[in-house]
Amino acid sequence: MDFVKFGNKYVLRLDKGEEIVETLKEFCTQQGIKLGWIKGIGAVGEATIGLFETKEKEYHSVDLKGDYEITSLLGNISTMNGETYLHLHATLGDSEYNVQGGHFSRGVISATGEFVIESIEGEIDRKFDQEIGLNLYKFK
Ligand code: FE
Fold first, then answer.
1. Which residues contact 100 (CB under 8 A, 6 or more apart)?
2. Distance 2 CA to ligand 1 centre (A)
3. Which of 111, 103, 39 lies closest to 68, judged by CA?
4. Segment 92-110 mean pLDDT
5. Separation of CA 103 and ligand 1 centre (Å)
6. What's the distance, CA 17 to chain centroid?
């Protein structure tokens, strides 16, 4: 991974073999980014995407293997219990030009990854919401 910073924006290159979520999380922690947005494109050889089932209040996920284009990865940065918290979604395109997408929890770069992180001055924490079953933004 390498990056350059322009104002409040960071442009990152992730390299072959790097796991996206862990790399981005570590980067935000190291840079002290507590609030912001992430967007990116690239290629992965392995990925895990999921769907939150609202009735059961749990994530169901699928592991993908093969060549996939990250046609779009979008997500946000916040904190929970003082730790960096990333919430990422992605769509992945396969060799048949079909796209699958969902809550993005893991992806290993197979060629390169190009990301922009936009840092927002501030901090928003999260709290688990019993009724919804998710860690929601906590504004008060
Ligand atoms: Fe999600």
1. 49, 62, 64, 91, 92, 94
2. 26
3. 111
4. 98
5. 4
6. 16
Question: Tokens for 80?
Answer: 């929970």
Give me the CATH topology for the region 2-138: 60s Ribosomal Protein L30; Chain: A; (3.30.1330)
Average pLDDT (53-69) is 97
The full set of domain ranges for the chain reads: 2-138
* 140 pLDDT higher than 90: no
Distance CA(97)–CA(94), nearest Å, equals 5
Indicate the pTM of the whole model.
Answer: 0.96
Q: How close is the Cα of 137 to the center of ligand 1, in Å?
A: 13
CA distance 63 to 102: 12
Q: Cα of 52 to ligand 1 centre, how many Å?
A: 7
Answer for the pair 37, 47: CB distance below 8 angstroms, yes or no.
Answer: no
Q: Which two tokens stand for residue 61?
A: 């996920």
Sorted by sequence, the CB contacts under 8 Å of residue 5 that are 6+ apart come out as 11
Return the DSSP state at 98.
-
